[in-house]
C-alpha cells in the first residue's frame, strides 16, 4: 500500500468541516458586532469574541467543540435579538 502524501498534521474531513463551522461562527459574530451603535461596546464585544475563540483554539475533543459552537450560536442569536430590539 502506498504511503499517504498528506503531512502528518493534516486535518481529517470531520476536523476540517468543524473548523469551517467555527470560522463561519466567528465571522458572523464579528459582522453582528459591527451593528452595535456605541464604539466602546463594539470594542468590548470584539475583544471578548477574539479572546473566547483564542482561549479555545487548542480544543480537540469533538463533543466540547460541538458544545462551544452551540453556545456561540446561542450568544450570536441573543446579540442579534438585542440589536433588533434596540433599533425598534
Descriptive overview:
With 88 residues, the protein is mostly helical. It has one domain (13-87). Helix content is 73%, strand content 0%. The chain has helices at 13-33, 39-55, 62-87. Helix 1 (13-33) packs antiparallel against helix 2 and helix 1 (13-33) packs parallel to helix 3 (62-87). The protein is elongated, with a radius of gyration of 17 Å. The termini are far apart.
Architecture blueprint of SSEs:
Elements lengths: L12 H21 L5 H17 L6 H26 L1
Helix pairs in contact: 1-2, 1-3
Q: Label the overall shape.
A: elongated
From the N-terminal CA to the C-terminal CA, the straight-line distance is 64 Å
Order of helices and strands: HHH
Structural class determined from secondary elements:
mainly alpha
Range of helix content: over 70%
Mean pLDDT: 92
The main sheet comes to: none
Give me the number of helical elements. Answer: 3
User: Radius of gyration over alpha carbons?
Assistant: 17 Å
Keywords: Mitochondrion, Transit peptide
Domain Complex 1 LYR protein: 20-78
Subcellular location: Mitochondrion
Function: Involved in efficient integration of the N-module into mitochondrial respiratory chain complex I.
Amino acid at each position: 500500500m502506498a504511503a499517504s502524501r498528506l503531512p502528518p498534521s493534516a486535518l481529517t474531513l470531520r476536523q476540517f468541516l468543524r473548523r469551517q463551522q467555527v470560522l463561519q461562527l466567528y465571522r458572523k459574530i464579528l459582522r453582528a458586532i459591527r451593528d452595535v451603535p456605541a464604539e466602546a461596546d463594539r470594542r468590548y464585544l470584539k475583544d471578548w469574541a477574539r479572546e473566547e475563540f483564542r482561549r479555545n483554539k487548542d480544543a480537540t475533543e469533538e463533543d466540547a467543540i460541538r458544545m462551544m459552537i452551540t453556545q456561540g450560536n446561542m450568544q450570536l442569536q441573543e446579540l442579534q435579538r438585542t440589536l433588533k430590539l434596540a433599533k425598534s
